[in-house]
Write a structure and sequence with these properties.
- The protein is an alpha+beta fold.
- The chain has a single domain, classed as Jelly Rolls (Sandwich).
- It is built from 4 helices and 8 strands, in the order ααββββββββαα.
- A 4-stranded antiparallel sheet has the order 1-8-3-6.
- Helix 3 packs across helix 4.
- The longest helix has about 35 residues.
- The protein is globular and about 65 Å long.
- The mean pLDDT is about 85.
Length: about 170
Amino acid sequence: MNGLRLRLLGNRRKENHEDRIRVMLKNIPIFDGLSKRELLAVERILHKREYQPDEVIFRQEEPGMGMYIIESGTVEIISEPSQVQLSELTDGEFFGELAILDESPRSATARSKTQCTIFGFFQPDLFSLIERNPRLGVKIVMRLARIIGERLRKANERTQRIRKEFDQPAPGLQ
């Protein structure tokens, strides 16, 4: 009887962990709106990895192969060689998503600030998913394209604001 109870508890823990992963995925815009079955297909191709504090996840200028989703912990995105922190990300946030579409070099370094559990979602796995389930693959790629397009628009708006501020003469110099 104790063996059965332990197996049931183990199964329940596994189900709770899988439910947490699905909830986390649902909260990421790339996977928002996917069905439970589609989320399960994505979950199957995620690669879980543990990182120690100050461990490099990827370095600036390395070829990108995929994106990362933080289950727990804190990651900093750093510009090299100046070591300027560009952003700090935590539980449920994602980074490196452009690498799913494009293998160009990373524009910054990602490093764990704390103990982290991170899931990798890599381009070869997405391509394999697209072959097996084209409809799901297209949903993911379209959402990803929208997110990248939105970020590009915001960056363009910031650039235009900065240019306008730079082009304005300083008070008293007119």
